[in-house]
Amino acid sequence: MNKLCFLILFLINSFALTAQEKLSLDQALKLALENNVEIAKNKNDEASTKYDKKRAYFSLLPSVNGFGNVFESTGTNFDQLTGMLRTETGQYVNGSVTASWDILNVANKLSDLKLSNSNYESQKAQLAYTKEFILLKVVGRYLETLQAMKQDVIFNKFCDVQEEQLRRTDELIKVGSLPGQDFYTQNAEWSRLKSLREDNLNVMNAKKNELILLLRLDPSKETQLDSILGEGLFKGKMNIDSLYQKALVSRKDYQQIEAKSMVKKYELALQRSKFIPSVSIYYDYGSRYSSFQTRRFNDQFYKDNITTTIGLSVQVPIFNGLQTRNVVYKARQDFKNAELDVVQTKSNIYVELKNLMSTIAANEKKVTYRQDQTESASRAYELEKERYYLGQGSPLDLGVAQRNYVEASLSLNQINYQLIYNRFELLFYTGDIISLVQ
């Protein structure tokens, strides 16, 4: 009794473990956001632009620099502190702290600040778009694998059917009801189906391996997929205008294009600021030590020789061979091109949505047609098989009917998964696919 209970518990645990090992689509999407290499790289780029944004804020403050040197000089030396020429060896220490602040050309720093902020927004949008693109890619590989798995079931079914037909044909040949060559015709069809099944298994493994790479899972371990999909498909009304407006608000690639346009705008402003004179105020606090003076180092460096300087520097751009003007001109053209990209992207989004809606509508009709095609092919095959074994049909007619049935079943399977993918595509094109993992 104890052994029986142990066996039952072992089987239950084994079944539970197998069920847990199956990777669902929801789990795959979450793993992609955590592990995908492209997403990780974009996160690093975003962190870099965020740090540059902080740098631009601090550039508005005055700059402070320290200077110091210690040296020994032998030979004829002029001692600035005593105003005398000396020929013996002397030791010197100099130190100063200088603060400067550009008070006029603030436009340059403000443009730099806005530029760094736009760069950060662009990279943030790029990260979000990469996440969405990877999610759609994961969906595609996952569904392609499930489609191949379903096709394997179909091929396996028809291989079994063909094997049974081959056995039955062999029996009828032995009793003289069918000619001997019919065995080879049936056997050739059986081999063809098994070959197609192997091709499909190869495709299934390739798609699964691509999915594993996207998720950065251990390729040495077997990964089982859950064929039950969640409820994340787009099921709303497909109104082109409402979808278009939603896409303009939510799509990260469009937000990135807009941010890049702003980057070009502030790059132009940054170049234009080079035409403006630069006025800086500066303050210097320094001290010196000379071994030729009789007082100690602390007295000289911290009391006697302290100097403070405050001043104003002006730099006026006059002529540099039209280099600045040329750079400004190029920046202006880049900004115009960026604005054109924004306009073109809007048109692209509308066309993408319109094409996808047309594809979904067509595929929905195809599902109905292919269901009818599969049912008709199934009936035709059964009737042709009955005729054949009654001696009224030929093996070629039976083979054609069976192939039509196989192709119809595969086509129905393909369009079903294609329509599912199109629904996920619609989430992607409206910028809402990220909601699957939130």
Automatic annotation (TrEMBL):
One cellular component (GO) term of this entry: cell outer membrane
Keywords: Cell outer membrane, Membrane, Signal, Transmembrane, Transmembrane beta strand, Transport
Statement: the UniProt record of this protein carries the keyword Transmembrane: yes
Domain of life per record: Bacteria
Protein name, entry field: Outer membrane protein TolC
SUPFAM superfamilies from the UniProt entry: Outer membrane efflux proteins (OEP) (SSF56954)
Species for this entry: Flavobacterium circumlabens
Gene Ontology MF term list: efflux transmembrane transporter activity; porin activity
Region forming the signal peptide: 1-19
Family: Belongs to the outer membrane factor (OMF) (TC 1.B.17) family.
Cross-referenced Pfam families: OEP
Keyword Signal: yes
Lineage of the organism: Bacteria, Pseudomonadati, Bacteroidota, Flavobacteriia, Flavobacteriales
InterPro entries: OMP_efflux, TolC-like
Compartments, record wording: Cell outer membrane
